[in-house]
Specification:
The chain has 270 residues and is an alpha+beta fold. The protein is built from 8 helices and 8 strands. It has 3 domains: 85 residues, Orthogonal Bundle (Helix Hairpins); 62 residues, Roll (SH3 type barrels), CATH 2.30.30.60; 82 residues, 2-Layer Sandwich (Alpha-Beta Plaits), CATH 3.30.70. It has a 5-stranded antiparallel sheet with strand order 4-3-2-1-5. Strands 6-8-7 form a 3-stranded antiparallel sheet, with helices on one face. α1 runs antiparallel to α2. The longest helix has 46 residues. The relative contact order is 0.08.
Length: 270
């Protein structure tokens, strides 16, 4: 073997490759910088046009991926003929489609979410046992943020396939509460006091009218039900206010909130 000739050919090949490596590196570096600039430009344009934030979130994800793919393919084109890669991908289309069917389903489901809009960014939703505020709708995933600041990432296909409960879709919500009183309590007094508490709270909406009624006869108590309407943003504030106020006012009025109890009768054998 002529090692000198082999080394000479290898060196020649490397020297021919260096410009391509430099060109590919420049394309990647400049391309990713330019893609970031272009992404910010498009993002600002969509925001100025007052587009729905949900649509902006989806297209942000799509644009990021699309631009990066174009840059990477252009860089690879310095070494091989890009048309041959595209032809190979097209020839293997069925195989690739089967391998990426889940990802393609997520993309299609993401587009469906944007078109049908069952929820928007900032809505609080329940999805197949998980719940949280919608943070982003990306090209393949929907991202929720929980009350305790956890991030839940759900594939778009699973979101579309399951029941979606949008808690904050309407401007108002009904708050359902139950308070138990003793069987010795005068029900008229209990209903009057609950009605007073409701009328004094500014967060309670007058229409639809609040409801105070006897809900159930339990083993150790009578359940009083309270149904009031409020603005969706006031739901939890009203809930905690009612819980505190009712306990305090019941104590002041001498209305007993009974503990579960059982009467035991002991029979003596004579």
């Amino acid at each position: 073997m002529d090692f000198a000739k082999i080394w000479s050919e290898l060196l020649t090949w490397l020297l021919q490759l260096v410009p391509k490596i430099i060109a590919a590196g420049l394309i990647l570096g400049i391309g990713f910088w330019a893609s970031g600039f272009l992404f910010r430009l498009i993002h600002r344009a969509m925001e100025r046009s007052k587009a729905d934030p949900t649509i902006v979130s989806f297209f942000d994800s799509f644009i990021k991926i699309a631009i990066k793919i174009i840059v990477v393919i252009t860089a690879i084109g310095q070494f091989v003929d890009v048309s041959s890669i595209i032809a190979a991908i097209a020839a293997a289309g069925v195989t690739i489609g089967l391998a990426m069917k889940d990802n393609l389903a997520n993309v299609a489901s993401g587009a469906q979410l944007i078109i049908t809009r069952p929820f928007h960014l900032g809505d609080y939703v329940l999805l197949d046992g998980v719940e949280g505020t919608v943070e982003r709708i990306e090209i393949m995933f929907t991202v929720l943020k929980t009350f305790d600041n956890k991030e839940i990432v759900i594939p778009n296909s699973e979101v579309v396939a399951n029941t979606i409960t949008n808690v904050t879709a309407m401007e108002t919500r009904r708050l359902d509460l139950t308070y138990c009183v003793s069987y010795h309590t005068d029900l008229s007094d209990a209903k009057k006091l609950l009605s007073e508490i409701i009328s004094e709270n500014e967060l309670v909406l007058p229409d639809p009218a609040p409801l105070v009624a006897v809900g159930e006869h339990k083993e150790s108590s009578i359940a009083m039900v309270v149904k009031v309407w409020c603005k969706k943003d006031d739901y939890w504030t009203l809930y905690y206010q009612m819980q505190e106020t009712v306990k305090r006012r019941f104590d002041q009025a001498g209305i007993n909130i009974p503990f579960p109890q059982m009467d035991i009768h002991i029979r003596e054998n004579h």
